[in-house]
Records
---
Amino acid sequence: MMKKWRGSCCLVVLLVAALVAAGIVLILFWRSRCRGENFYTHAAVAADSETCSHIGRNILEQGGSAVDGAIAALLCTSLINPQSMGIGGGAIFTIYNRSQGRVTVINAREAVPEKVMPGLLTGCSRLNPGTQWIAVPGELRGYWKAHEQFGKLPWKSLFEPTIQLAETGFRLPELLRKFLEHQQLRHFINNSLLRTLFYNNFGEPLEFVRYHQLAKTLKVIADQGPDAFYNGQIAQDLITDIQEAAAAQKSDSTLTAEDLRRYKASVVKPLTVSLGDYMMYSPPLPTRGAILSFILNILKGFHFTRESMEGDQKVLTYHRIIEALKFGNGQLSRMTDPTFRPYNLSVLLSDRFAELMRQRIDNEAHPLQYYNIEHQAMEKYSTSHISVLDKDGNAVSVTSTINQIFGSMIFSPRTGIILNNQLADFCRADRSPSNIAGQPPSSMSPSILISQDRKSIMVVGGAGGSMILSATAQVIMNKLWFGLSMKEAIEKKRIHIISDNSLQFEEEFDERVKNEMKRKGHTITSPSQLPSVIQGIFADQVCIEAVSDSRKYGKSAGY
Ligand SMILES: *[C@@H]1O[C@H](CO)[C@@H](O)[C@H](O)[C@H]1NC(C)=O
Ligand SMILES: *[C@@H]1O[C@H](CO)[C@@H](O)[C@H](O)[C@H]1NC(C)=O
Ligand SMILES: *[C@@H]1O[C@H](CO)[C@@H](O)[C@H](O)[C@H]1NC(C)=O
């Protein structure tokens, strides 16, 4: 009796052991897929610099939420890529809380100052430096709102790594050096106090950058919260510096302490559109999230697969993508701030409207009117995007900007802050009048895509002005429909359709496709000097692949 019992016991033990072993082998096998550069198993940050991806990652490893990681990485980015974003600008967050299964958008886009200069837009040009273009910064109100709802670590701890970096300094980043050595920019920077921040007495870019004043400002905000910026001494110093800059440049300064005091970030509902296996969440107006959703909603009807990018099909596939992007351009003029021009997005995002547009895509290119293009937007921007996924599966897709390179080029010496020139987003290439009110329209469209079974997620967004839409759309399709890895999806050469509907191919783009597009009657112009830059994360139940675009020398980090 005893013996028999012992025997079956051993059998059970053996069986259990075998199952455990098989399980371990299976997990190891799965996990082996996750090895290598850009692959992680718990959490990841894809910022547009390696330094800031690391800072974000460390916050996640200390138990921070995706929002905590994103805020820490954003603050860091304001030092490494000060030409792109900072607390003198604005941001849009798209946030996924996995346990609630809910996506939230925080709109911290800059607002138009109360006393905006009449006739401002007659001064629109390619670059728009000067105090008259400064909109009310939204960045810190946005961080606070996001942290209030989704933060886990103390507010202050998110600032500490960046304050330290600002104080000790670091070697001039390669990309920043390129901007500082750019002749045309140099001319503007010479006329701005920015020169005191980045050049030595001989007019050469510094080898080593430090941000003493900004470090002090960040310390105050870390201790006291954003009220210090919007209501306190920092607000007063900022306004004084802007007024002094305006007096020196004999221009107008319209931003007031009252504008700062009144600024509020808002929590809004994301737009949703179903793309087959995935639900896509993107921010509503004043961003162009609706256009991105609209473009992909048209294209989903072609049921692209891996084969669509092979052999002869590739040409037709690209033509269809180009046409959908042109119809996207056709809707741009409607994407103004909802506070003064209500626009019913549910029509734009309906399957029926997408179907109508799809029917208009044939085998050739058409004149502008065919796509409903009324007027064209200006093109040049500088921006940063960060994608974050934490260990609990919560995600943040956030895009932040001061608009053009170094924003308004107004540097506030008392606070160390560089101010945006977001009002230039009201400029249009054809100089048609636009209404300056509410928030300037924005191409930013930080998005999150979640599979219907909720087991896979893609966190994606980018920088590059009006190229953001075409770049983000292509990366999403590359990953979800054309079967590429996230790395391949982001590194693949892209095509851009600018607002006059001309095509810009990145260098080394497939020559055959390019020639075929010319034959179909598309207009081709030379590519813009600044690339589009995408940061994306894709995660299934086994691996996380987080990728920062090499076009901006970015690198992801995770664990
Ligand atoms: C997500 O929502 C749940 C339930 O409301 C909440 O307990 C949790 O703290 C949230 N997670 C984050 C990271 O905000
Ligand atoms: C900017 O100023 C430096 C000296 O501080 C001078 O060497 C340089 O030529 C100036 N550049 C332009 C474009 O004005
Ligand atoms: C928008 O249009 C849809 C469909 O036509 C309609 O059901 C909805 O009520 C409209 N929403 C508003 C705010 O007008």
---
Amino acid sequence: MTPAGPRHFASDNNAGMCPEVLAALAEANAHHLPGYGDDPWTRRAEKLVRETFETDCDVFFVFNGTAANCLSLWSLCEPFHRVICHQFSHIQTDECGAPGFFMHGVTLHPLDTPEGKLTPDAVREGSRTPHGFHGSEPRAVSLTQTTELGTVYTPDEVRAIAAVARELKLSVHMDGARFANAVATLGASPADITWRVGVDVLSLGGTKNGAAFGEAVVFFDRARADNFRRRCKQSGQLASKMRFLSAQWVGLLENGVWLRNASAANRVAAYLEGRLAELPGVNVAFPRQANAVFALLPAAAAEAVAARGWRFYNDVGPGGAARLMCSWDSTEADVDAFVGDLAAALDHA
Ligand SMILES: *Cc1c(COP(=O)(O)O)cnc(C)c1O
């Protein structure tokens, strides 16, 4: 085995499983249990999600975020519908057309609004259908929380968008691949930033929060959950050994581990932001509100730290900023090592 390298800032999916997830998997492995979700781990995980959101929602566990998004949107849309989203949303930029593939003709309607966040006015404008029945009918709006640019919608912002959506008869989907980080930032209850402000269905991220794989789909509008298992089955997303998806959620949600993980990532990102502020010539591109820092680096310095082996994306969102993503296992020491290399690169540039 190669020795463990440093923890990079490429993505929170570079982190391993947190100990509680690994322990839950080991425990789930100790017993012979029924498949396809008919098992006590899945019951326990569903119950924990309901308790977390303080409501009687329908909960499903799928393998990844693309499927969570597309299957939940599929539950809202007919093939002639369209989904309003942000131009930098994961469904628009990072799912290889899966929304159209899963939904047989549903289109996305990307909007260009500041800092990765949709606004009520933009949603209203975007839902116009000038060509009448020749155009796809808007049926859903998809918000990402935290956004792909590392910002966080406040509960009031979500409420205002959802109010316009209601008026226009659009359902509200939330891509919560980093939902835990938003909860940690806002210090609000999960219910207060979802169904209580008008979210109908949530893709709840586990992978980036400390699971090995798997996201949950949470239907607050339970009428929309009809046939969801068949949609999963047909698209290859119904886990036969479901308990290994669901047990991870027991590891995350019991004792608040998910929020501890998210808070840790957010805290290290805040530290990184502070350390970068010491460096002349380095600026932050978007407000740092959760676990991502988007840093505008001089090109030569960005190349130099990349050449030293530091990994990060510079093609997420506009402007070529380095996206520095912290995960549950990121540490201040990782930040210090990176900032040290960056400071040296800036000196030589
Ligand atoms: C990571 C991520 C996903 C999930 O992607 P998969 O690779 O399909 O698991 C979804 N939405 C956002 C915003 C993400 O960052």
